[in-house]
């Protein structure tokens, strides 16, 4: 539930001193459980890589592979 609240707060498009609003929200919410802010920020960045960056890299690879196959299929359609 804490991550869901942090994601809602993160939808506000502002940053404070270079820190994202999601990280600040998580620090505020998880500090009540005596978790170090460094661990919270690293967890938030890990989630970013896991949820957004990693699938984007996979999508880039699929796009590059499929764009080559699409050109070949289009040439065969035009000839036929």
Could you explain the architecture of this structure?
Helices cover 78% and strands 5% of the residues. With 80 residues, it is mainly alpha-helical. The protein has one domain. The chain has a two-stranded antiparallel ribbon. Strand 1 (15-16) and strand 2 (19-20) form a beta hairpin. The radius of gyration is 20 Å and the shape is elongated. The mean pLDDT is 78.
Number of domains: 1
Beta-strand percent range: 5-15%
Main sheet characteristics: 2 strands, antiparallel
Q: What is the topology, as strand order, of the major beta sheet? A: 1-2
Mean pLDDT: 78
Which radius of gyration do the C-alpha atoms yield? 20 Å
| Low-pLDDT stretches | none
Question: What is the ordering of alpha helices and beta strands?
Answer: HEEHH
Principal-axis shape: elongated
- The proportion of residues forming helix, as a percent range, comes to over 70%
Number of strands: 2
Query: What structural category do the secondary elements indicate?
Result: mainly alpha
Oligomer: single chain
Give me the number of helical elements.
3
Between the first and last Cα atoms, what is the distance in angstroms?
57 Å
Outline the fold blueprint.
Blueprint: H1 2-10, E1 15-16, E2 19-20, H2 21-30, H3 37-79
Antiparallel strand pairs: 1-2
Brief synopsis:
With 80 residues, the protein is mainly α. Helix content is 78%, strand content 5%. It has 3 helices and 2 strands.
List keywords for this structure.
80 residues; mainly alpha; two-stranded antiparallel ribbon; 3 helices; elongated
């Amino acid at each position: 539930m804490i991550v869901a609240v942090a994601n809602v707060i993160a939808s506000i498009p502002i940053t404070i001193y270079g820190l994202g609003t999601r990280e600040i929200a998580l620090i505020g919410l998880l500090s009540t459980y005596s978790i170090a802010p460094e661990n919270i920020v690293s967890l938030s960045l890990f989630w970013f890589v896991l949820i957004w960056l990693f699938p984007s890299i996979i999508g880039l690879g699929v796009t590059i592979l499929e764009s080559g196959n699409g050109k070949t299929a289009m040439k065969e359609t035009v000839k036929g």
